[in-house]
Amino acid sequence: MKILIADDHAIFRKGLRDLLKDELTEACFEEAKNGEELFELAMQNNYDLIIADINMPGKSGLDCVKELKNLKLKTPILVLSMHNAIEYAVRTYRAGAFGFINKENDIATIVAAIKKILDGEKYFSEEVNEIIKKAKLKDVDKPLHQKLSDREFEIFKLLVSGLSPLEIAHKLELGKTTISTFKRRIFDKMELFSVSELTKYAVEAGLI
Prior knowledge:
- The protein is α/β, with parallel strands linked by helices and 208 residues long.
- It has helices at residues 10-23, 35-44, 61-70, 86-95, 107-118, 126-134, 150-160, 165-172, 176-190, 195-204; strands at 2-6, 28-32, 49-53, 77-81, 99-102.
- It folds into 2 domains: 2-132, Rossmann fold; 138-204, Arc Repressor Mutant, subunit A (Orthogonal Bundle), CATH 1.10.10.
- The longest helix is centred in the C-terminal third of the chain and has 15 residues, at 176-190.
């Protein structure tokens, strides 16, 4: 597992890296000191996750999220901020990030967010989830599941049937990383946040 940590404060980068090393023993870490370096490294390497500060000077973490999404980069990005404002989190979501977390959270919470994102899900607070739903970002004229490709819909059906990504990988003879990538695409297209929300949607839509 390869993770990039981007923050303009060297002490914070080192501290976070050292803490995560104890929790994610299989991971290797690289660092970027600003948004420009983050962008360059992201284009040159295949990271499993990018952790980026939202307020870096020059190209901010949010700028990087938008630009990398426009370039179709599939690496999920977790945005960190000293601010706990809901507006920051909503903007982060809309930019295409897979999570938003306050830097003041304990390491257990940060690790939980990382593991959830690596498993193909998004990590935002319940309050942010509700705001996004109420904002009606969805295309109401078209059922959400019809936005999915044939393969995405196949994996969607397996997820809501209760299979884990690893079980789906075995069933379809694909890698678990590939299934996690498809899972992220499904969440992104349907603007949902967890398998439980997918399952609720599937029940309400009469798909299971």
